[in-house]
Each structure stands twice: as structure tokens, then as C-alpha cells.
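To: structure desk
From: M.T.
Subject: fold request, one chain
Message: Could you run this one when you get a chance? Sequence is below, nothing fancy, just the single chain.
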Amino acid sequence: MRKLTFLALLALLILAGCATQTTPSPTLPPAPSATQPAVQSTETPSSTSTEDPAGSPTQELAQPSGQQEFNIVPGESSVSYEVGETFFNQNNRFNTAIGTTTQLSGKITIDLANPQNSSIDTIEVDISRLQSDSGRRDNMIRDRFLESNRYPIATFVPNQIDGLPASYTAGETLNFKVSGDLTVHEVTQPVTFDVQVTLANNELQGTATTSILMSDFGVGPIEMAGILGTEDQVKINMEFVAR
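Reply: Done. C-alpha cells follow.
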């Protein structure tokens, strides 16, 4: 009887132990990984991540038009003429007369995004301020030949630019031609300048050269019987700084 009771008790203990091992305790769903958000935040943004609410990429909105205006700086720029002259009273001595003025103005617009859209406004030069190495020559030019005391301003109105590239790199020197109408002594003639320009540090520096005939403008060639005579062809040089 005692043996039977002991066996029954033992069986109950075994059953209770098995029930404890086989009945799983309730568990909560696994918590999100603490590292998961960090992984997501380091992903490379897609191309749409830079769009504004209207759907346009921010980079495109910030893209500048590329146009910049530069004004020719008087005093730092100059226009000069070069013409050959022969002194009959000095055994036909030949000399190149050079006269220069620093009084000029004009505006240049550069389109960095599309250089071929660049433009040049009217350029004005005060030719009454032309000075050479001879005051006597300068006075004769002002009073008798060029009459720049009466017609002090020469103008150049550009109407065509040829040879500009499709793109531009800062510091690059450009060579191109500018055609337009030159007015001197109230006479207007078509003229083409060979131009060289460099843009660096927000400043334009360049040169422009052409040749004209004084006879086309009714101011020469100059002749003083027994004293001197000039050639008809005159070289025009412009050196300019624009900011």
C-alpha cells in the first residue's frame, strides 16, 4: 500500500515537470532593431530628394543665368591712332604718328552659359582728347583736319559678332570679330574690329584693332605743302579694362 502511494506521487511529479517544460511562456513581439533607423538614414538620397514642393530640382533653381555686365573703365582703357607721315622739309623723313585718349565708355554683356548670346553696346570715344608727342600736330588735328573740337565724340555701334565659342572656361582668351558702324566727323562707315578678350577675377581685359581710310570720313589724308603729308590708312587700337 505504501509502495503504491509512493509510485502514484512520483508519477504526479513527473507529469507536473513535463507540463512545465512543454508549456511556453507568453512572449511579446520582437522590438525593432535599434540599428535599423541608422542604416536607413545613411542611404544615398534619390534624385527626387532635391526637388522642391513644386517638383523642380533644387539644383536647377539655383543655376544662374550666366549673364554678367561689364563697363569699360575710363582712365584704365585707351583708344589710339597710328598713321605714317613724311616730313618733306626734313629730307622726307618718315615717322609714325601716334595719338591716344583714355576717355571712352561702353558696356559689354557676357553670357557665360552661352557665349554666342553675348553683346556689346555702343562705344563712345572723346577724340578731342587725343594727344601725341607734338602739341602742334594735336592742335592742327583738332582745329583743321579731324575738327574734333567741333565733333568731339566718335561712336561705334556693333551689329554683329563672329567667332564666339559655344562654351567658355574662365581665364580662356577668346579671339573674334565685331562688325558695326563707326561714326567720325559726322560720317558713318562700316568697320570690323579684331578683338581679343580674357575674363578673370570678374574683370574683362582685351584689345580691339582695325584699319580705316581717313578719306572715307572726309578728314584726310593730311597734306601741308612743303612740310608734310600723311598716309591715308590709319590703324585704330583699343585697349580696354571692363568691370
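Reply (cont.): The chain is about 20% helix and 40% strand. Let me know if you need anything else for the meeting.
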